[in-house]
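Q: Could you write out the predicted structure for this multi-component system? I'm mainly interested in how the pieces pack against one another.
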Amino acid sequence: MSIFEAILLTVITASTPLVIAALGELVTERSGVLNLGVEGMMIIGAVGAFAAAQLTGSAYIGIVGGIVSGALFSLLFAFLTLTLVTNQVATGLALTILGLGASGMLGEAFVGAPGIRLLPIEIPVLSAIPYVGTVLFKQDLIFYLSILLVVGVNWFLFRSRTGLKIRAIGDNHASAHALGINVIRMRYLAVMFGGACAGLAGAQLSLIYTPQWTENMSSGRGWIALALVVFSSWRPWRLLAGGYLFGAVTILQLHAQAFGIGIPSQFLSMLPYAATVVVLIMISHNRRTTMINTPASLGKAFVPDR
Amino acid sequence: MKKLALALAATAALVLSIGSAAEAAEKTKVCFVYVGTRTDGGWTQAHENGRLQVEKEFADKVETSFLESVPEGPDAERAIERMARSGCSLIFTTSFGYMDATVAVAKKFPKVKFEHATGFKAADNVATYNSRFYEGRYISGIIAGKLSKTGTAGYIASFPIPEVVMGINAFETGAKSVNPNFKMKVIWVNTWFDPGKEADAAKALLDQGVDILTQHTDTTAPMQVAEQRGVKAFGQASDMIKAGPNVQLTAIIDTWGNYYVKRVQALLDGTWKSEQSWDGLKDGILTMAPYTNMPDDVKKLAEETEAKIKSGELHPFTGPINKQDGTPWLKAGEKADDGTLLGMNFYVEGVDDKLPAQ
């Protein structure tokens, strides 16, 4: 394997959890709900996946464990913000703190346990293509899922009837309600989809990225995912590109150091964040492109008149 | 004047001992501030083991408490101050980045005693303690020099502070003593704790041709990458053999417990003074994990080196050693003094990296 392929492989590993978590949040935000608890849901997914894999001995059941625990955890957020109408920003932040604490407690028994690694699946024929084959078609299930999810969500949001409803309640929940759409139910489902995705991203961390359980192992990736949603201006394909850009900058700065390129490492470590800021500025510079996609009722509570 | 001072000191000691006797009834509180989680398998876990030893030793006289995952920076000062307000008599702050915060809080609470790990700023109520990790890293370097086929090791480094630079230099000096052309590649991850990033750095180093790994970060993720790729590696702070059963050569194990017990005892006796302690292999504050996964002759050499360092026969930083650019640092037979080591901000010859500005 050439160094080029090796670098691409690590870029994919680093980018996949960002893409998946951000994609879930994108759907949540398209429905008008701002859930800042991605970091918390992600770490709950990581511990859920690790625990499920340990208890059953199967990494695949681990994936299911990650998805289910992320979704269930987001249900708590949905109940608080949608049914009890609490402040979304505060509740999201609380969800992150709770997730970090609870995952540490739940995971205590699994610390130091040798992880069960999810093995790559080779796709016949395609994996024989030089360069592209090793990089794209000898990957683990979660990578394939991430690509399918981007395609699926893009189709769902812009081509399906339900997707149209979700975008409608994100843009104007009062009108959508007047048209007879069940705003609360749709938002519950959107939040849970976001939770399930964050959980899947967490599963990638504890089953593939570093197959082990360590407290705080998400290390701020949930926040990067949140930034990616804005970065992508709520479009799935842009989000995919942004996630890979971010992963690439992160990995390339490590390689630049190992090559002995004389740039200060602190500067290189800052690059991914600097890139985010630059792109955010570029996007927001063009007022039309940003305003068109921002869900108008994002973060606003909806109380149906009874 | 001297007599007066002595009399004052005696009175103070008496008052203090009465004070501690009264407190003993309701248990003296000893507190710890951790940078990572107690179960990180590395640095913080090693301090946690020390805390547990204190609990065991003074079960009826001392109660301990701790704060974990306290980020370095402004939060640290608030966390340490919270500890000081909550009635702690002695507070151990266990990360280099807590240095200024510890000194700042100590000024506000002159009656509370503080001990800062790996720093250099002291005060009447702030002691510092450190371990001569470089002795262990020198041994690791020798093993690497013997075993590496490419003659290049990869080093995953956290922050460019003297402690870490000293470790890199000790490793290189050890390796060079058995392989004069030994080289090192360094990646700075600018974090103590990020398993994903540490693993990425390990992969990047391996992809670029190093065939032995060592780390100065806190999680077992690099060791796990080494295990997956079948590349030899060294553990850091705790024995990481569980993460790398087939690849861990040895590990530098921080064994803070004895030091903590000694200092808590001094506090109880009223003899606690601000000191700057820097012990090493000889004093047992630093121990080496069993030498595994290596040929017998290398193992023997490592054990001999360890014995020589313990007896004082060998100082890892003994000249001739040149700085990275080739200018002489230590003359033949000259030993580095502690002051230079603790403020180390340059590489020795053979390190293939540019030291980031601090």
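A: Regarding packing and overall arrangement: The CA atoms of residues 78 and 188 of chain A lie 6 Å apart.
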